[in-house]
């Protein structure tokens, strides 16, 4: 057994970003045109900094995606394709969680259950195995783990500290107590301790409070989080309680974390349904942070907060209003692959 495995932080050097192209057979079919524009903007932003690997369902989807990206003048030398079946396009939750070791990589392949059985997910549950069999990854070993866990449910600082929400993990495993869950996560992910959030949620979020919509590590001693400063909003009490929990957390050396609260966007509605718009759903790439923008007055203040939290990185906004129709944003769509695994 490799005994020097480490779960790298998102800000460490990456080989590529993995995404899956939307098509008529996915849940995007009713609004495919506007969603494709958001995907094109996302790929264009990523390829400024590193390659993108695009999962496609078949040759026709690949040809179409290639043509759309090329016509938008995306740098196609930084775009690769891999044909693989998938139910949906939320690669954060279905892609591999990659551990680094001195002699290679371990691809953790947890069970994906459609966010606790809410949706069909048989092809998504097989995604990591199919990508591995397609020889996408280098110098790596896939480790199947018969335990439901989504990548959007966890955050790591790369030094052995994991952050997650009790609501999500308890919803997936209601018969497992917190101490046992923490022990299991630390064992599989090679972490030393878990920071549990008991508060925080977003209306319209069907993941049962994924951490990547609420609070994110910006460094070993800094956390960026979604706040709500509108006392009349249904989120105010929960997100205020979450902010207090974050203030009580301590770093590995016993200090309070530096906290960066993100501004609160105005409610975005789809009919009577409120959509889950969070600026915390940003993506870190080589040299930059890609921030979801919602065509809201809070977009620019959010960009300024991230510029302060990530002073050495360019902050690039990506229009994500069409994406939250399906309850996620740009971090949910993507999975970073550490340097050397591709």
Mind sketching the topology for me?
Blueprint: E1 14-20, H1 32-46, E2 52-56, H2 59-71, E3 79-83, H3 91-94, E4 97-101, E5 104-111, H4 114-117, H5 122-125, H6 127-133, E6 140-148, E7 154-156, E8 161-165, H7 166-172, H8 178-189, E9 193-197, E10 215-219, E11 222-226, H9 236-248, E12 258-262, E13 269-270, E14 273-274, E15 283-285, E16 288-293, H10 299-309, E17 314-319, H11 330-333, E18 335-338
Parallel strand pairs: 1-2, 2-3, 5-6, 8-9, 11-12, 16-17
Antiparallel strand pairs: 1-18, 4-5, 7-8, 10-11, 13-14, 15-16
Short description:
The protein is α/β, with parallel strands linked by helices and 342 residues long. It contains 11 helices and 18 strands.
3D architecture notes:
It is a single chain. By secondary structure, the protein is of the alpha/beta class. It has one domain: L-arginine/glycine Amidinotransferase, Chain A (5-stranded Propeller). Helices cover 27% and strands 26% of the residues. It contains eleven helices and 18 strands. It has helices at 32-46, 59-71, 91-94, 114-117, 122-125, 127-133, 166-172, 178-189, 236-248, 299-309, 330-333; strands at 14-20, 52-56, 79-83, 97-101, 104-111, 140-148, 154-156, 161-165, 193-197, 215-219, 222-226, 258-262, 269-270, 273-274, 283-285, 288-293, 314-319, 335-338. Helix 1 links the parallel strand 1 (14-20) and strand 2 (52-56). The longest helix has 15 residues, at 32-46. The chain is globular, with a radius of gyration of 19 Å. The mean pLDDT is 96.
């Amino acid at each position: 057994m490799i005994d020097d495995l480490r779960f790298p932080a998102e800000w460490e050097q990456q080989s590529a970003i993995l995404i899956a192209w939307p098509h008529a057979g996915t849940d995007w079919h009713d609004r495919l045109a506007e969603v494709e524009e958001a995907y094109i903007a996302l790929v264009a932003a990523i390829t400024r900094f590193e390659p993108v690997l695009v999962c496609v369902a078949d040759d026709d989807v690949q040809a179409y995606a290639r043509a759309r990206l090329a016509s938008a003048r995306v740098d196609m030398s930084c775009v690769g394709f891999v044909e693989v079946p998938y139910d949906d396009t939320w690669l954060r939750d279905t892609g591999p969680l990659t551990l680094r070791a001195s002699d290679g990589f371990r691809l953790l392949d947890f069970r994906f259950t459609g966010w606790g059985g809410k949706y069909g997910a048989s092809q998504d549950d097989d995604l990591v195995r199919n990508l591995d069999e397609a020889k996408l990854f280098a110098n790596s070993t896939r480790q199947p783990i018969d335990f439901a866990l989504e990548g959007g449910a966890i955050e790591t600082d790369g030094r052995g500290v994991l952050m997650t929400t009790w609501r999500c993990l308890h919803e997936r495993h209601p018969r497992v107590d917190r101490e046992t869950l923490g022990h299991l996560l630390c064992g599989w992910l090679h972490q030393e301790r878990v920071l549990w959030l008991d508060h925080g949620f977003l209306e319209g979020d069907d993941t049962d409070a994924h951490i990547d919509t609420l609070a994110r590590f910006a460094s070993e001693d800094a956390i960026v989080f979604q706040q709500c400063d509108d006392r009349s909003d249904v989120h105010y009490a929960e997100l205020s309680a979450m902010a207090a929990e974050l203030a009580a957390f301590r770093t590995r050396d016993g200090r309070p974390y530096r906290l960066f609260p993100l501004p609160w966007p105005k409610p975005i509605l789809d009919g009577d349904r409120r959509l889950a718009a969070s600026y915390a759903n940003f993506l870190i790439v080589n040299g930059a942070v890609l921030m979801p923008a919602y065509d809201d007055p809070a977009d620019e203040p959010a960009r300024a907060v991230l510029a302060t939290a990530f002073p050495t990185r360019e902050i690039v906004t990506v229009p994500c209003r069409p994406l939250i129709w399906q309850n996620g944003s740009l971090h949910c769509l993507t999975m970073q692959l550490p340097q050397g695994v591709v």
